[in-house]
Each structure stands twice: as C-alpha cells, then as structure tokens.
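Q: Mind making up any chain with structure tokens?
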Amino acid sequence: MPDNSFKDHFSGHAAAYASARPNYPPSLFDFLADNCAARDCAWDCATGNGQAALELAGRYRRVIATDASAMQIAAAPPHERLEYRVATAENSGLETASIDLVTVAQALHWFDLDRFFDEVSRVVKPGGMLAVWCYGLCQVTATIDRIVFDYYESLATWWPPERRLVERGYSDITLPFALVECPQFTMQQDWSADDMLSYLNTWSATRRCSADTGSEPVAAIAAGLRAAWGPALRAVNWPLFLKVGRNL
C-alpha cells in the first residue's frame, strides 16, 4: 500500500530552501558523536537539503540520508560517505538494528510519531541514539524581532497545526528511549536584510499563503525590515530545542 503520511511543504522550493536556511552548529554534531557508542552508521531522517547529513558524514563511517521528497534529495550536495535515498520517515527501508544514531532536524513535527518511533526502535542498535531538534523564531534586535514576529502572526491561517509542536520546543513529545542530558545549543548566522527575507520566503506558511492568495506576503514587510536592518550584516540567533534518547 502507498504511504500517504508524508506532508510535503517544501518540495516546490527545494533549491531556495537549500540556500536560505541557517546552519546548525558543528558543536551539536560533536556532542552527538562523542556520546554515541559507535560511529559506524548514522541515519539522517527527513534530510531536506542535507545540511545535518553533511555534518554527520564528517564524523561517521557511513551516513544514510532519507527524505520523502525526491526534489529535496536532488538539491542536496554529495559526499563520499553519504548515501541519499527517497523514503518516508515511517518506512525507511533500513536494516533492523543497523543504525548507531538517528537525527531529525526541524522535521519531527511533520511525522506520524507513533509509526516513526516504532521504525526508530526497529533500526537503532542497542546503545544507539535518537536525536531530534527544532528551532523557532530568531533573535536579532527588538525592532527587527517585532517585525518578524508580527509577520509570523499574520500567517496564522496558513501555519499547519503541527507548527505548535515547534512553538513548544518539542516539550510535549516523549521519545521512545531513555533521555540523555543535553547542553544548550544556538545557531548563529551573519545575515543581511535580504538574507532574512529569503529565509522568510522558505517558511511553509509563506508558500501556502502565496499559493492561496496569489501574492508574495514577504514583499509587504520588505521595505520596513530593510529600513530597520540597515546595510550591514547582523548576527541572527536561533535557540535550538534538542532532545536525545538512548536505546538501553
């Protein structure tokens, strides 16, 4: 039977997504690798633009990166230790007890959680780990943050209900494994106003609004954001909400 669980919010702008999303800190992947019982094989699930998978490839002998979107896979960069596959989170096609680490970056909220956790429990080795993380709104300055927040709120009609899990930092999601204590990580990028506008254009609610209304909602805030931002690059910060479980 076909798997209809995949909720595709990003295939239509896969190339833009790959170029406009912020990068995860290398220290996050160092922490995961240092706490992993082995580094033979990692699975980056819902890899999207392959950002997390590339970091894993520098630390694991083999990385399998899956995404249900063939367009996202096509836009992801290659690496000699990285194998891309088109597959859903709930039906990975991976061998039983073959994975040392599963990562899900900014995507867990789109999954059928019960089915995904069953799949993770099947493929993760004893002692292996599941690491999931998300990030919400960024922090720049009070004025810019208000513009971005107001824009976020203006899209309320178009945000899928799963977005609420991100807003709560995955606090109400229970992993199937024993929790591992984690430090706090933050993403940071030095961005121009146009970088920020490109990022806002990748939001799933932005694309849904555009499809429904025939307009480009980011254009309505572009002048005000550029005026508040100025010509210089600014530091943009996103606190990461990380949960890690170990298969005891």
About this structure: Residues 11-246 form a domain with the Rossmann fold fold (CATH 3.40.50.150). Residues 142-154 form the longest helix (13 residues). The mean pLDDT is 93.
